[in-house]
Amino acid sequence: MTESLDLFSAPAPVDKAQPAIKIKALRDQLNQWAHQYYVLDEPTVPDAEYDRVFRELQALEAAHPDLVTPDSPTQRVIGAVMDGLAPVRHTVPMLSIHTETDTEATGAQAFDARVRRELGLTDADPAIEYVAEPKFDGLAMSLRYENGRLVQAATRGDGEVGEDVTHNIRTIRQIPLTLPEGVPPLLEVRGEVYMRRADFDALNERQREQGGKTFVNPRNAAAGAVRQLDSNITAQRPLSFFAYGLGAITPSAEGGPVFRTHYEMLQTLKSWGFPVAAQVQIAVGATELVAFHQQVGASRDALPYDIDGVVYKVNSLQLQRDLGFKTREPRWAVAHKYPAQEIATKIEGIDVQVGRTGKITPVARLAPVFVGGVTVTNATLHNLFEIRKKGVRVGDTVIVRRAGDVIPEVVGVMPGKRTGYVPNFRMPAACPVCGSAVVREKGEANHRCTGGLFCAAQRKEAILHFAARRAMDIEGLGDKLVDQLVDANVIRTLPDLYRLGLTSLIALERMAEKSAQNVLAALEKSKQTTLPRFLFALGIRHVGEATAKDLARHFGVLDAIMDATEEQLLAVNDVGPIVAKAIRTFFEQPHNREVVEQLRACGVTWPEGPVAERAPQILAGKTVVLTGTLPTLSRDAAKDMLEAAGAKVAGSVSKKTSYVVAGEEAGSKLVKAQELGVPVLDEAGMLELLSGQGV
Ligand code: IVH
């Protein structure tokens, strides 16, 4: 809060000057809060409080239209639509900067050596002080303030003449519209408008949802937003700003600040409310420049915004003047680039890859390019939708991005480079790994292989699922063992598990005879199972435990399920068209049927019976909640028994609960049951109920 004004005290008697004073106080307060929020990243009031004061200002301004000024916080997003962008001649040209792409050491040393030579220094002279800054990957902007008010914002253009984008720049909350008192009467702040990566991703996501154009990278998105004719559009594209220099400046009436160094100037800009990057620091001599290049390069992918290098600037403004310019580049600054994270190359073909879960990913085979520090020959295209949306075809020149350890991706097609007709990419109908049908479900972006446990690409995942506790419950068959077994090619399909012998297990690294015997015993034990467990273990898409139980209850025998039509499947409780189709597709694959047959041949069995023989559904329509530890039955066993009798087993107690079965250490669920008057049973009571003589 500003020192001298108390916004929350009772209103003083109204006189003529009152609204103007009040308006100023409200604006100062809002500007201060906005600066804390947008620039310092340190919100000091709840959003609701900001909104309340904002509305108060809006109301006051509405009552006094003559007091509305363009620098009021209320005027940031009320944008006029322009016919075109007007040219602006820069009073001080916006220069470009010499670029070094050499290695860390040679790039920085070459610059330092050049500066020393130009200044006529010898080895005996002390090291030069520099300011090292990130090189932001956005677009250069010149902000002109007259008497502390933002009057014009212009793009760089050709360096001499840029474009007037004031209406759009006003929407950027990080850019102050007014400056504190005492700033020079004329001040041009130069810096970079950019878009944070998270904001960019969110924007593209939104554009995608609304069927709008997506952007290839944050820089393009920022440039597009800045050059909009309608600032209402810009206001919806979250832009940010970093100050890194000055254009024209006149000293203030009182003599104004005369800066001695670049660093001091940046600190002053910061104190006036401009965002200055936290990484900016003083570096002495070439060695520290090299260190800075390394340090920022290492944290590059962790920064919330894109940079394409670092900039070194001689710190002393006097030395800057001594060094001067060469054509349109200052001799006192250099940009030292990092390897590009984006580069153009040609797509030579499109293959598909099958993931652990059966997801089919189209992958572009590229003419090899050096990007993000490595040679890249493949890049993901994500899925068929992305290919269509981006309009990617074989032979196209595309932009490939590789940031850090992230998988390289094709971000977009360079327009106008296609020569002649190229057919659209089509998803293969059969999985390239196992030959099973490839399908895409309604409402899903990804295609999938239906091979499941038969597909080599999905083998490890399928085996782990098969062995899981709630499936076949094969103790000791975990991640590491499955990796070893599959990698050594000992296990190719699920039935191979039951063909494992002591010799092949002991042959594995770090497998003692005792553990091998335990695994074999666990496998042997797992052969006696139940139909729901077996069905669940097969890993049919969308068939979880509950559906497996429903299917088993409905059909009674596996063969009936394997041969059921979609229509018959739809008759099962909770089975809809998506699940029915998934089950159908799974059992239509001859190799999946083969796997089931072989498992049976290996001795996997479960009690089966015609539907009529299933347990009487004495608890049909009842909902039961289990809580606490029962004396003899495990939670799973109790659940199975209740469900077999037709009950629904729920996780929480409500008025609709029919019974709560409580064991030892039952907690809040028991209390709730008592409150609601729901009958509570112990294990014996439950068994009595199941036998048909209960409550
Ligand atoms: S100083 C006279 N500092 O790089 C030197 N430029 O050609 C003027 N850039 O498009 C530029 N980060 O927008 C400077 N920390 C930084 C920068 C930076 C990015 C951009 C600038 C311009 C290009 C310079």
UniProtKB/TrEMBL annotation:
Tell me where in this chain the BRCT domain is found.
614-695
GO terms (BP aspect): DNA repair; DNA replication
Pfam families in alphabetical order: BRCT (PF00533), DNA_ligase_aden (PF01653), DNA_ligase_ZBD (PF03119), HHH_2 (PF12826), HHH_5 (PF14520), OB_DNA_ligase (PF03120)
- Identify the residues that bind Zn(2+): 431, 434, 455
Q: Which of the seven top EC classes does this enzyme belong to?
A: ligase
Q: What does this protein do?
A: DNA ligase that catalyzes the formation of phosphodiester linkages between 5'-phosphoryl and 3'-hydroxyl groups in double-stranded DNA using NAD as a coenzyme and as the energy source for the reaction. It is essential for DNA replication and repair of damaged DNA.
Q: Which PROSITE patterns match?
A: BRCT, DNA_LIGASE_N1, DNA_LIGASE_N2
The answer on whether this UniProt entry bears the keyword Zinc reads yes
Q: Name one GO molecular function term.
A: DNA binding
Enumerate the cofactors the protein uses: Mg(2+); Mn(2+)
Q: Which CDD domains match?
A: BRCT_DNA_ligase_like (cd17748), LIGANc (cd00114)
UniProt keyword DNA repair, yes or no:
yes
Looking up PANTHER family in the UniProt record yields: CHROMOSOME TRANSMISSION FIDELITY FACTOR 18, DNA LIGASE
Catalysed reactions, as listed in the record: NAD(+) + (deoxyribonucleotide)n-3'-hydroxyl + 5'-phospho-(deoxyribonucleotide)m = (deoxyribonucleotide)n+m + AMP + beta-nicotinamide D-nucleotide
Q: Where is the active site?
A: 135
What cellular-component terms does GO give this entry? cytosol
**Similarity annotation:** Belongs to the NAD-dependent DNA ligase family. LigA subfamily.
Which of UniProt's keywords are assigned here?
DNA damage, DNA repair, DNA replication, Ligase, Magnesium, Manganese, Metal-binding, NAD, Zinc
- Residues bound to NAD(+) are 47-51, 96-97, 133, 156, 192, 313, 337
Q: What EC identifiers does the entry list?
A: 6.5.1.2
Q: Which gene encodes it?
A: ligA
Family annotation (InterPro entries): BRCT_dom, BRCT_dom_sf, DisA/LigA_HHH, DNA_ligase, DNA_ligase_AS, DNA_ligase_CS, DNAligase_adenylation, DNAligase_N
Name of the featured protein: DNA ligase
